[in-house]
Design a protein that fits this description.
The complex is a heterodimer of chains A (about 280) and B (about 270). Chain A is of the alpha/beta class and about 280 residues long. Chain A has one domain (about 5-280): Carbon-nitrogen hydrolase (Nitrilase/N-carbamoyl-D-aminoacid amidohydrolase, 4-Layer Sandwich). Chain A contains nine helices and 14 strands. Chain A has helices at about 15-35, 55-60, 65-75, 120-125, 155-160, 185-200, 250-255, 260-265, 265-280; strands at about 5-10, 40, 80-85, 90-100, 105-110, 135, 140-145, 165-170, 200-205, 210, 215-220, 220-225, 230-235, 240-245. In chain A, a hairpin with a 2-residue loop joins strand 6 (about 135) and strand 7. With about 270 residues, chain B is of the alpha/beta class. Chain B has a four-stranded parallel sheet with strand order 3-2-1-4, sandwiched between helices. Chain B is globular, with a radius of gyration of 19 Å. Chain B starts with 7 loop residues before the first helix and ends in a 30-residue tail after the last helix. The model of chain B has no long low-confidence stretch (mean pLDDT about 95). Classes of the chains: A alpha/beta (about 280), B alpha/beta (about 270).
Chain lengths: ~280, ~270
């Protein structure tokens, strides 16, 4: 089906869950007013990014009253949102939830936690262990959290699992000012457009804005058509609510024109990976 | 094209946004800075005026009796061009009062004292105006340690600390810092005729090329030598960076507890903001 997505490119406050929840509610209400069918929010939208030792203080159980508010709102609009999840055995994850029709449809725990350069996620957070697509009103969807998308296997697995729409929730720090465009923006544009094209999927990329300790999150959320064209983009560095229309016929057309997934051979991939795994002695 | 070329419009946007965001979110709306007449503080002054509105920026020129009179004139020029609030507060009485008791002090001690005197004035005006102190140290001098700890290196926020001097020149063109300030030779202005490049023994452009390859791109010594950098120069710069590292860190705390500040008690500075 055709649907309208609202990219809620927000500026969360670091460690202020109550304030951020109010902001999210307000933004989602605006998306409802603008007749969007899906509201997408960035990675760690409820908490901010450079949390460090704040992780246990801002973490929410999946049944928490805070998330229940978003779950309730999802009776009126589908919502995907990033937060710190705590489990009953006190594991902490950088998670993304998809709420729809008043229910939790899917929970993805970020698998690839960057721990290099300015990133230190693995020090504070546990690692997810799966990539699974799931059914929504808008067809089958796959969720990725930021760095997940930098691992080819992650969107590949989601597409193999039937996802036709990939949603990547991000908190991407802007850096690299020596070329025409911001270095990080160029890198992400290459990544999302190539992924869409390789997998003939639509890609929705939602990034936050604002500064934390001098680091600028660059925004620039966008939607990529299955052809690899960026169809709608939010401004860079500024908070915004940007609407984009996703058209089912474009997906159909692209899958007919480029039947790459039809021809993809899981058996070869599995056999060769098994061989590589064996030979590496993993 | 030099490796150090930057997209000045993009950098301007990021830095103006940085000042606005980081100042407003702590509940302040004003900034104070020392305006020396040199290019670094001129650039910060222009960026701050753009970020906060010129009426919210307090620029203070704090000359010592040996400072070049041209410096104050240039500071005034920058204040007029950027429209900020400007005042002159000479530090000669305070500095001289101190060294009357310690007359044997060398130039380095005197220079450090002046830098720290200026710091106390800026932080006092921070309290007076409810304004945050802006740092004006660039990446070249921060890496080389060419600054006074708790003096000109002290600030609440530094918009230009990730830009090499070569890039400061480029960005200053973009924000239209007055021409004489861009064109003149950089100087710490501790005594008449002093220039940074003479004191350091190399030009900023030379050292910036090396620092960029060494620090930003993590090039190894052999790689740098093969590119034409002098081995002794590489070694001396590496030593400067290493030996001044203490200036870029908080004071070391002796660990005795299970949770020590900055070691295993870790929060962002923007905690809760």
């Amino acid at each position: 089906m055709d649907f309208s997505v609202a990219m809620l490119q927000i500026k969360p406050k670091l460690g202020r869950v109550a304030d951020n929840l109010s902001l999210l509610k307000e933004q989602v209400e605006m998306a409802i007013e603008q007749k969007a069918d899906l509201a997408v929010l960035p990675e760690l939208a409820l908490t901010g990014y450079f949390l460090k030792d704040l992780v246990p203080e801002v973490a929410l159980g999946i049944e928490s009253p805070e998330l229940a508010i978003l779950k309730e709102l999802s009776k009126r609009i589908s919502i995907t949102v990033g937060f710190v999840e705590v489990t009953s055995d006190y594991q902490f994850y950088n998670s993304a939830a998809w709420f729809e029709g008043g229910e939790l449809k899917h929970l993805h725990r970020k698998v690839y936690l960057p721990t290099y350069g300015l990133f230190d996620e693995q020090r504070y957070l546990g690692r997810g262990d799966r990539f699974r697509a799931f059914d929504t009103k808008f067809g089958r969807v796959g969720l990725l959290v930021c760095e997940d998308m930098w691992h080819l296997s992650a969107p590949y697995l989601l597409a193999m699992d039937g996802a036709t729409t990939l949603v990547c929730l991000s908190s991407s720090p802007g850096r690299g000012v020596d070329h025409g465009e911001l270095g990080t923006a160029t890198a992400w544009h290459n990544l999302t457009t190539a992924t869409a094209r390789f997998l003939t999927c639509r890609v929705i990329y939602i990034n936050r804005v604002g500064y934390e300790d001098g680091v600028a999150f660059w925004g620039g959320s966008h939607v990529v058509a299955p052809s690899g064209e960026i169809v709608t983009a939010a401004p860079e560095f500024e908070p915004s609510l940007t609407l984009a229309r996703l058209v089912e016929a474009e997906l159909r057309r692209e899958r007919i024109a480029s039947p790459l997934l039809r021809d993809e051979n899981i058996s070869i991939t599995l056999r060769e990976l098994a061989k590589i795994d064996r030979e590496r002695g993993c | 094209m030099s490796l150090l070329n930057i997209n000045t419009k993009l950098v301007r946007r990021i830095l103006v946004g940085f000042l606005r965001d980081e100042i407003l979110k702590v509940g302040a709306k004003k900034a104070v800075l020392g305006l020396s007449g040199g290019i670094d503080s001129a650039l910060v002054c222009h960026l701050a005026a753009e970020a906060l509105g010129s009426e919210n920026v307090y620029a203070i020129c704090m000359p010592y009796k040996t400072s070049n009179p041209e410096s104050e004139a240039h500071a005034r020029l920058v204040a007029e061009a950027s429209g900020v609030r400007f005042s002159v507060l000479p530090i000669t009485p305070m500095v001289d009062a101190y060294f009357e008791q310690l007359p044997d002090a060398d130039n380095m001690r005197r220079g450090n004292k002046m830098a720290r005197e200026r710091m106390t004035i800026l932080f006092d005006h921070s309290a007076l105006y409810g304004a945050l102190v802006l740092g004006t140290s660039n990446k070249t001098e921060l890496l080389l340690g060419y600054g006074t700890l708790y003096g000109d290196m002290a600030s609440a926020l530094n918009p230009i600390g990730d830009l090499y001097k070569t890039q400061i020149w480029q960005l200053s063109e973009e924000v239209e810092v007055p021409r004489p300030v861009i064109d003149k030779k950089p100087s710490a202005d501790l005594w008449a005729g002093q220039t940074d490049e003479e004191e350091l023994g190399f030009t900023y452009r030379e050292v910036d090329e090396l620092l960029y390859r060494m620090v930003d791109q993590r090039a190894g010594v052999d790689e740098l030598v093969s590119e034409g950098f002098n081995r002794e120069f590489i070694g001396s710069i590496y030593n400067k960076v290493q030996n001044s590292h203490f200036k870029r860190r908080l004071p070391v705390i002796a660990k005795v507890s299970g949770r020590t500040i900055d070691r295993d008690f870790r929060y962002s500075r923007d905690w809760g903001k």
